[in-house]
Amino acid sequence: MEPLDIRPDLEALKAAYPAVEIAEAATGHFDIRVSLDQYLDVVKFLKDRGFNYPACITAIDWKDRLELVLQLYKLVVGSRQSPLVMVRVDGLPREGAEVPSVTPLYPGLNWHERETYDMYGIRFQGHPDLRRILLPDNWQGGHPLLKDFEDKRPRRPRLVRHRDMIVSG
Amino acid sequence: MEQTRELLINMGPQHPSTHGVLRVLVKLDGETITWAEPDIGYLHRCFEKLSESKTYTQVIPYTDRTDYLSAITNEHAFCLAVEKLMGIEVPERAEYIRVMMAELQRICSHLLGLGAMALDLGAVTGFLYAWRDREKIYSLFERITGGRMLYNYLRIGGVRNDLPEGIIGTPKDGRDKADKTIWGFINYFESYVLPEWDDLLTNNRIFQWRTQGVAPLPSEVAIAYGASGPVLRASGVKWDLRKNVPYSIYDRFEFDIPVGKENGDCFDRWVVRVEEMRQSARIVKQALQWLAENPGDYIAPKLPRVLKPPKGEVYIRYEGSRGEVGVHLVSDGSANPYKVKWRSPCFTHLQLLPVLAPGHKLADMIAIIGSIDIVLGEVDR
User: Cβ contact (<8 Å) for A52 and B224?
Assistant: First the structure.
């Protein structure tokens, strides 16, 4: 089995979108940093170049901004070592961020985008069904994977048997 | 009187065939499903948030509890991620122990998955046979790790302890030693259990009628929906991360990738799992031969007490029992992970339910849920 080379694709991407930054990480994947307005075009470009497998989409909270990370790779039967690319959109606001949805291109990212919305509050424009997924529909407590998230629910009384006394709180 | 109104019913959250707490909303036209929508999150335990407040080693027991039927493979995926980030070399013996444990775990997990699918379809016997053999693996695991389901056995840089004396056994061990030595189990498994599964269910005509042609999944749909593992391979895509993106030492083992036909149905997914158990047994045998002859370190020497990976990011793709487990780890140089993202195969597969179910009978829904083999602990994390 031949190792899969994606460098020609990345060079073509760089030629088509000169503003895109491409770097190889020490841990083996390729980071593709794009601006928000080029994000959807770049993902479409990658899909046309054969990046057919949607691995995951998530976000990272860098405390002053959010970063969206989309992981894709080529699933080619008979190939070896298909490298992963991470399409990253940095500098999203921590509240009310909106990015275009890639679910129409990769239906497998539907729930992953919903989870990212649930956990980080990033809204995906054009998503067919953007609702909370893991948390209840009527959850009012914010987006838990943000670093400054606080659980504002009333604390449950903790019943600890301490000698003969029951301490609560 | 003719009635044409669509009926909306609730399956779950406490339905015995949903393998946990899964609620599926189903619209019915008579007996035929026209629409299905899974509702998840009943088992959400904030694994990812919790991990951010733990050290790297402390996260390992939590990974057990995501997919609790396949704990070793989860630990392995997480340890691989941290090791890649820190550049830790794992001793060869530890790698072999890990691979052997992961493949035994895969057999164990498939046994339960297949048994539960058989049970849901009415073949209670199949379930009891699966349970009998799974129990033997659990006895072995209990002697190796101390735990029966949730092991906390792998460590970053190796495993917690070496294999206990006498657990490997000899290639001549037979059925009487099935729950005492690993060789005994593998020989028993290959000579008794697998033929039994073929006779009981795979070649059983009633079972074939019940599952063939139910919920076919074309290969291009499977890829677009991010299906992986047995579900993807049952649709005829020959893709196994152990072979195609080799990690650990899988490139040293000989095994085949079983695939189904172009439009894999529930029966194909069944057959692929049975075949995968056969292949896993092959890998375990090769690992046992090596382990019997090569003593050595089981954990990397000279690891720091507190692991602080350098700043960076890693995404590990791991062939878990149910498909591609992705671990996305971000480190900020401190002792706690900055972010852990668990890409769980079951979560991704459950999206297929609204695609697969419409057009089938309500009773087939059970076969479909059984055949994509979900574990709700991993769906909800």
Answer: yes
B2 occurs within a structural domain: no
Question: Is B351 near chain A, with CB under 8 Å?
Answer: yes
Count up the domains in chain A and report the number.
1
Chain A residues whose C-beta sits inside 8 Å of any chain B C-beta: 1, 25-29, 52-56, 58, 60-61, 69, 71, 73, 75, 77-82, 84, 86, 106-112, 115, 119, 132-136, 144-145, 149
Q: Is residue A15 part of a domain?
A: yes
Q: Is B246 in Cβ contact with A145 (below 8 Å)?
A: no
- Domains in chain B, number: 1
Residue A54 domain boundaries: 2-139
pLDDT tens-place string over residues A23-69: 888 888 899 999 998 899 999 999 998 899 999 999 999 989 999 99
Residues of B in contact with A52 (CB under 8 A): 223-224
Q: What confidence tens digit (pLDDT) does each residue in B177-235 have?
A: 878 899 999 999 999 889 988 888 888 888 888 888 888 889 889 999 989 989 999 99
Q: Is residue B248 part of a domain?
A: yes
Q: Is residue B220 part of a domain?
A: yes
Q: Which of A80, A108, A119 sits opposite B226 (nearest CB)?
A: A108
Q: What is the 3-state secondary structure (H, E, C) of chain A?
A: CEECCCHHHHHHHHHHCCCCEEEECCCCCEEEEECHHHHHHHHHHHHHCCCCEEEEEEEEECCCCEEEEEEEECCCCCEECCCEEEEEEEEECCCCCEEECCCCCCHHHHHHHHHHHHHHCCEEECCCCCCCCCCCCCCCCCCCCCCCCCCCCCCCCCCEEECCEEECC
* Tens digits of residue pLDDT in B49-63: 889 989 998 999 999
Q: B119: domain CATH number? A: 1.10.645.10
- pTM (2 d.p.): 0.90
Of B347, B324, B357, nearest in space to B217 by CA = B357
Tell whether B341 lies on the interface with A, counting CB pairs under 8 A. Answer: yes
Q: How many contacts does A have with B, using Cβ atoms within 8 A? A: 104
Band the pLDDT of B287: cuts 50, 70, 90: very high
Give the per-residue pLDDT at A160: 64
Write out chain A residues lying below 8 Å of B46, CB-based. Answer: 144
B340, closest residue in chain A (CA to CA): A60
CB contact under 8 A, B223 and A75: yes
Q: Which domain holds residue B337?
A: 7-380
Query: With bands split at pLDDT 50, 70 and 90, how would you rate the model's confidence at B3?
Result: low
Amino acid of residue B348: T
A79 and A103 Cβ atoms separated by less than 8 Å = no
What pLDDT does residue B276 have?
Answer: 92
Does some domain include residue B1? no
- Nearest Cα to A46, choosing from A91, A95, A8? A8
Mean pLDDT of chain A: 86
Identity of the residue in A58, A82, A136 whose CB atom sits nearest the CB atom of B244: A82
